[in-house]
Design brief:
3 strands; DNA-binding; 74% helix; three-stranded antiparallel β-sheet; globular; homodimer
DNA sequence: CTTGGAATGTCAACAAGGCTGACGTAGTTT
DNA sequence: AAACTACGTCAGCCTTGTTGACATTCCAAG
């Protein structure tokens, strides 16, 4: 706001604006490779998100996924239905609570997930390599602090759960 | 892939997957504040993008904007029309080439832009503050290398032009 | 045991914002 | 004069978000 904040943080409004634009362009690059793979199959971003988190937490329920993705159940359901119909996702009625549907990737689903993930990781890895090892920690810290608290909880939960 | 790549890059596939998720959640946080402001006026992400880049490059042409945003003119036109109708954007016929339309924000447009930008910068600033000054450079380097080459050219052009 | 409410998931209809294709109208270039 | 370029628009489609209504299932209170 004033000279002090600039001095203390080493950040002018102009620098922040550039960071904002970098975020915008980078996110497009971030999804570009998966989007090409998905488009070839008639899928979109929403399918990728579902596939990613089902892979991450096999057996997760629809409700659980809703919390992570932050969309309505109707919206998710449409995507999920096509994935189940196409044999990429398995939806099994819960044994303990028969209202729940437990979601897992089929073998075909895992294959697509690997394809998407490999492409995306390759780009990430290249970006990290060029930025140097020191940048990685800082990058993740900044991203983590940019999340909403609720999103951050999800993130931390996934992180800890996968240890 | 093997132990060597881990050792050389300090990056396991698992670390990369976490970075991918961090990117996903962070981008949502990144747009959350503007989205609230926009929604109150009946606008969406597309309006923000147009407003941002018109502010950034006052007098830019429609064609120019199309290249930056990477959408079709039909799609952009819909957004632009509402912004002009609502008195946030001024579309003036070019003097040198009268086929072109030069776009600038009106006073009202600048007001909204400031509101959106302030909210977004505040979150960025907070994230950077918590990550520490060393993280800022690394963060931007990683983002820059994550872009497609074409996107990166646009980014560099904006960066150099605004000096 | 039954009944009412809460949780879970599905179907229907609508809106925003992408897309392609076709076309019109200026203005510019050759 | 002809061709090309910049922009706008109409029509129609797709994805992915939304709300509302509804069926099923579970659980807890009476």
């Amino acid at each position: 706001m004033d000279d002090h904040s600039d001095t203390l943080l080493f950040l002018t409004d102009e620098q922040l604006r550039r960071a904002i634009e970098a975020m915008f362009f980078a996110y497009r690059g971030f999804t570009a490779d998966p989007d090409r793979i998905l488009a070839a199959r008639g899928y979109g971003r929403a399918h990728h998100r579902a596939i990613h988190f089902i892979h991450r937490t096999p057996g997760t329920t629809v409700n659980n996924l809703l919390g992570i993705l932050g969309v309505t159940k109707q919206s998710l359901n449409r995507v999920l239905r096509t994935l189940v119909e196409d044999g990429l996702v398995d939806s099994r009625i819960g044994t303990r609570d028969r209202r729940e549907r437990h979601l897992t990737l089929t073998q075909d689903g895992e294959t697509l997930e690997a394809e998407l993930s490999t492409a995306q990781r390759a780009r990430m890895r290249a970006a990290f390599r060029e930025a140097g090892p020191g940048a990685v920690a800082g990058f993740r810290t900044v991203l983590e602090h940019m999340m909403d608290p609720e999103q951050r909880r999800h993130f931390a939960a996934v992180r800890d759960g996968e240890r």
